[in-house]
Design brief:
This protein is an alpha+beta fold. The protein has 2 domains: about 160 residues, no CATH class; about 80 residues, Roll (Chitinase A, domain 3), CATH 3.10.50. A 7-stranded antiparallel beta sheet has the order 5-4-6-7-8-1-9. A 4-stranded antiparallel beta sheet has the order 11-10-13-12, with no helix packed on it.
């Protein structure tokens, strides 16, 4: 059984005073993405310097929360990394990004975490950062960030607030426990460029450590997200499925989530 992370916050640049009665941020115009740099937002030009100040506040706050939780590293989870040649021509792209070796379940230190957060906030990559049962950082749409810790990080909250961010007690919409997790095998027809899923079947009563073994993951990885299933894994998965796997007809993938 996983341990619930008790302390969770929404940490953003959005002042809660401008939320409507349903909690939506509708009472003031705000930028939500760095691609809006140079546009007129709420009557003023949104400048690069303004963006960089807010970005630094987010990243430095993440580090403060990590330090107050007394951890030195996190792991990458559900990594999506498809940086194009066009991305590399962006004024927000930095050569330093290429020093990172990005892969699923990688253990990253605080210096790497700074770069990873910067790349996520600039929409070059996406992933979650976590330490099992201890800590997480989740990034959502529109420059939303959620942090969870086993520690009530009062000093980090004060730091974020002093740097122009708003910290609200709020459960992350991306956080769920092992007991709430569903895992399944999905398949699409070979040659179908649209990759439309034509079938799926839930996997039941499979020990978590068996998933970790078959996908070569650490014991910290919660085995959520998507993974390609190859022919070498057929004996393992077939023993849990009613569907007869046919790699001559279908491409298979594993999905775990809520």
């Amino acid at each position: 059984m996983s341990i619930y992370i008790d302390f969770q916050w929404r940490v953003t640049k959005y002042n809660p005073e401008f939320r409507d009665e349903n909690g939506y941020y509708t009472l003031r115009e705000e930028w939500t993405c760095p691609s809006e740099i140079g546009k007129i937002i709420n009557g003023n030009e949104f400048t690069l310097n303004e963006y960089l100040q807010v970005e630094a506040a987010y990243i430095n706050s993440v580090i403060k929360f990590i330090e107050e939780t007394s951890i030195d590293s996190l792991r990458t989870l559900q990594l999506e990394c498809t940086i194009s040649e066009e991305d590399k021509t962006s004024s927000l792209y930095e050569k330093e990004f290429e020093t990172l070796v990005l892969k699923e379940d990688a253990l990253v230190n605080k210096n790497d975490i700074r770069l990873i957060c910067k790349m996520i906030l600039r929409n070059f990559i996406w992933c979650q950062l976590y330490s099992k049962n201890n800590f997480f950082v989740h990034f959502g749409w529109d420059y939303y960030m959620y942090i969870g810790s086993k520690v009530n990080c009062l000093s980090a909250i004060e730091f974020a607030s002093n740097n122009g961010l708003f910290v609200e007690q709020c459960a992350s919409p991306y956080y769920f426990s092992e007991e709430e997790t569903t895992r399944q095998i999905q398949w699409s027809e070979i040659g179908d460029e649209t990759k439309i899923i034509v079938g799926e079947e839930e996997l039941k009563n499979v020990p978590l450590n068996e998933y970790q073994r078959i996908f070569d993951l650490t014991q910290e990885h919660p085995v959520i997200g998507s993974f390609i299933v190859n022919k070498n894994q057929i004996n393992f998965f077939q023993s849990f499925l009613k569907h007869r796997m046919d790699f001559d007809k279908y491409e298979y993938s594993f999905w775990g989530g809520y």
